[in-house]
Amino acid sequence: MASQDPAAFGMVNPAIFEHLQTKIDEDSEVREGLKTILQVLEKQGRITQSILSRAHSTPSTSLHITVNGAEKSILPQVETIEKLAQVASRHPYYKYNSIWTRDVQNLCFSILLCGWLGGFQVGAGEAKVGRLLTIEEVGEVLRVPVNLKDQDAFHLSIEEYLQSLISLVDELARLAVNSVTLGDYERPLQISQFIKDVHAGFQILNLKNDTLRRRSDSIKYSVKKVEDVVYDLSLRNLIPRGKA
User: Fold this and answer.
1) Which tens digit of pLDDT belongs to each residue from 135-167?
2) Residues contacting residue 174 through CB under 8 Å, at least 6 positions apart
3) Residue 236 pLDDT exceeds 50
């Protein structure tokens, strides 16, 4: 086809912008495809969150029912994550990561909370209350790689895991208060030690992500909140001396 005379279009050929519009349309199509999958994931996630919220009103002796229900509700999300990974891995990871990272963090948080409550026997670790699943174990549950450096594909990042861990600390601080309402005076002690250990762990990290660094500062407030609960219990002689 004969080339068109640029002079016929003035100084700028409209074909340049037509080409850009094509790229914009292609990008929009990719984003809409990802959002369609994420809408399903978000809906599934709300079901899991609803189940896990029962932990705040369930005695420890009956907690296994809540944990089992949460584990089952997470399985469909894992299948949705696999669909997301298939689509996302066709495109540059960091170009579209912001679209799904919040939903992935929410799912990761649900897995961490479920694991802490005694669910998910993965890897060599034993399923027990108070256990923190590692990023590798969360990746095993999700069936996705973690912290990829050698290829541009969908994965669970360290930042997503740490953001989820901070959410876990927030939730456990709330659980400590509600445990007292249920007459469970041992759980706040367990939570107190756990989040102190997590707080100490974060002190080791040299965080480059400003958002993550600022949010990690909130852990100290959760530590103080649970310490106040434990202190109040000790004043009321509701826990054995030496355990507070």
Assistant:
1) 999 999 999 999 998 888 999 999 999 999 999
2) 56
3) yes
The Cα–Cα gap between 227 and 238 comes to 14
CA distance 137 to 124: 9
DSSP 156: B
Cβ count within 10 A of residue 158: 15
> Can you read off the two tokens belonging to residue 180?
């007292």
- Collapsed DSSP state (helix, strand, coil) of residue 48: helix
Q: What is the identity of the amino acid at 54? A: R
- Taking the C-alpha atoms of residue 168 and residue 117, their distance in angstroms, rounded to an integer, is 11
DSSP 3-state of 166: helix
Q: Write down the H helix ranges in the chain.
A: 15-52, 63-88, 93-116, 135-142, 158-181, 187-204, 210-216, 219-235
Q: H or E stretch including 238? A: none
CA distance 157 to 140: 13
